[in-house]
Amino acid sequence: MKTLNEKVILVTGASRGIGAEVAQQLALAGAKVIVNYAGGTAAAEETVNAIIAAGGEAIALQADVSKADEVANLFDAAIAHYGKIDVLVNNAGIMITKLLKDTTDEDFTRQFDVNVRGTFNTLREAATKLADGGSIINFSSTTTRLLMPTYSTYVATKGAVEQLTRVFAKEVGARGINVNAVLPGPTNTELFTKGKPQQVIDHLASLNAFNRLGQPSDVAKVVVFLAGDDAKWISAQTIGLNGAMA
Ligand code: NDP
Asked: What's an example of a GO molecular-function annotation for this chain (predicted)?
């Protein structure tokens, strides 16, 4: 059974990595998907083409989530195309890891602009433009539980995403909208693997109970559930997707 038939779902940062897999799994479950991206036009088109090739429906829409006007246009363009948005998946994010003493003003601002302002911008649009009875899935990270050196600003941004989740859930519950955050552990994407020696990747993969790296599909399957009506009574929660790592 296709659990997401008739639902229109906006996935931010869906050109690659976890977002691309989430978009494809949502479409397989019957949703019409808006594949948002910042700069990766070709990759976003690949995601859309993969969805259409599998019998699904999707369009790609460019918008930098850190820019309020672009996010407003993204919502309006998606609604103009599909008539509504039922579910928002706030997946777009970046990670800069450095000791705090080496973190530049630019690193700090960029990270907060994409991860926190980006989530804020989409939630503000969703407050009035998401359909009644909709769902929102924000992306935090298991690093907010691990609290490892070099992750201070990234963890600070994701801590903010978790708090936005908890408060916003109470603001939009009256419209039947539930809001949750997922916290993936180390997951096999460019964001995680880039710049890491294989032995560091292997070590981090060994710290969960399953002794393997998470895959985008591990995360996507949970997002499909949270986007569906059966998950409606789950709201304001932070859900670890990390094989018992933390
Ligand atoms: P990737 O770097 O693989 O992909 C990031 C995606 O976000 C790309 O599609 C990129 O689009 C998009 N993006 C980046 N900046 C913007 C922006 N300003 N506006 C719109 N889209 C943007 O990351 P992951 O798939 O690994 O991460 C996805 C989410 O999961 C992030 O929020 C991350 O923090 C979180 N996460 C990831 C973990 C991991 O181990 N991978 C662990 C825990 C959490 P484009 O191609 O156009 O640049």
From this structure: 3-oxoacyl-[acyl-carrier-protein] reductase (NADPH) activity
